[in-house]
Amino acid sequence: GGGWADPRAQARSEIAPVPSLLRELSHKAMLPAIVFIFSRAGCDAAAEQAAALQLKQSELDKVASELGETREGLASARALLDSQTEHGAKMEQERRTLEVEYRSYKEHHGSSNAQQMEAITELKLTVDNLSRQVESKTQEVVVKETQSEAQTAYIDSLRQKLLDAEAQRRALHNAVQELKGNIRVFCRLRPPPADELSAIQPVDVGQLRVSHGAETYDFNFDKVFRPDTTQQAVFAEVDGLVQSALDGYKVCIFAYGQTGSGKTHTMGSIGTPSSAVPEAALGIIPRTVAEIFARVAGGDGELEGAALAASASFIEVYKEDIHDLLQPPIEAAAADGAPKLATLEVREKEGAIALPGLAMRPVGSPEEAMAVLSDGSSNRATGATAMNATSSRSHAIFTVSIELRLRGGKVLTPRFNFVDLAGSERAKRTGASGDRFAEGVQINKGLLALGNVISALCEKHAHVPYRDSKLTR
Which residues, 6 or more positions from 379, have their beta carbon under 8 angstroms from its beta carbon? Predict the structure, then answer.
């Protein structure tokens, strides 16, 4: 205030003479101790001033404290303001984004509630339409599934009928074959040389006439093939035997006749690959083998889905010895003969004939089967006679063994034997001597035994002389 004096300044002015007085007394040695003399009035004033000063200091401290609190509140307010400012900026950015999206939405969907409701209504109609379509398609699927089940059942019934019909066909086919004869004899006439007249003339489908001088003799066969009959026509008569084999039966075809009469040509066992022979000249063996593979591959009837495994063997009966034509020769061929081959022994096992050591080559196609035939033919015994420069001196047996696994699990094991017999001979006509004569004797012996077996079978004799020859065993 205006009349306020600093008590500390007043106190200093009151005690200012004290130091000089103390020095004077000290020099006079009047006092034994230092004496402090204060003015009473001055001290009271100082005390009052000190109290006032302390009060003011307290007020100052309080103000300072309030100022600090105010500063802290201000800092907090500033931080809050900054946060609010940042949040406001974000909100502003979002607002702008929403405005852009809203404008885009308005551009695509209209700016009015009526347009939006119209769009929603259209969407609902579309959804309802699609729902009806889905329901309709679902019903169609149910109907189709029902029809499919019915068709599947119908197909199964047809398949069963087909199997039943196939069984009937097989029974009828084999009945026909039996009616024709389990043993049938065909006769094929070879064209005579251009400068000769044939003494044999066909009379009917199953009859021919042999002229000898003024006399004639008629012979009956299951069928007679004229000299102009093609290889295909001959095969057509034995084609039914292919089906018999695929039905599980064992089939055998013999070619029998005089040397040089065309047996090897008819059978097709000349040892030449089928690819090198014109189709019209193919014989019974290559045509039969090709037909077997073709019918299984075609999968008709019971053969549908069947698995075929086939193997081939090739042997010859030479002078009552059995040779494996697929085994390597043990000696090279002499200048006028065939290579020497190992001999196989005949064994009987469980009522069946077995040849231990016989080579069986797997064949997966007609070409592979004919390759086996070609390989074996090169080892077959042949020799020149006055009637044939390459006369077969042995009976050759080419066998195709088959394993058919049918879809139902049934397994069939048919076998096809093709026998190219050596030609029957008369030594007077062949001019054979030495080894050729001995070969001719054995050839005729085997043919005689075969004739006896066939006669016994045809006449249903109780005893069939199979053991008379290695050929018939």
Answer: 323, 325, 326, 329, 338, 339, 341
Q: What is the pLDDT of residue 336?
A: 54
Least confident of 149-163, 250-264, 288-302, 429-443: 429-443
Cα distance between residue 425 and residue 259, in whole Å: 7
| pTM of this prediction exceeds 0.85 | no
- Other Cβ atoms closer than 10 A to 161: 10
Backbone angles phi, psi at 341, to 5 degrees: -115, 155
Cα-Cα-Cα-Cα dihedral sign, residues 265, 266, 272, 278: positive
pLDDT band at 33 (very low <50, low <70, confident <90, very high): very low
In this prediction, residues 294-315 reach a mean pLDDT of 84
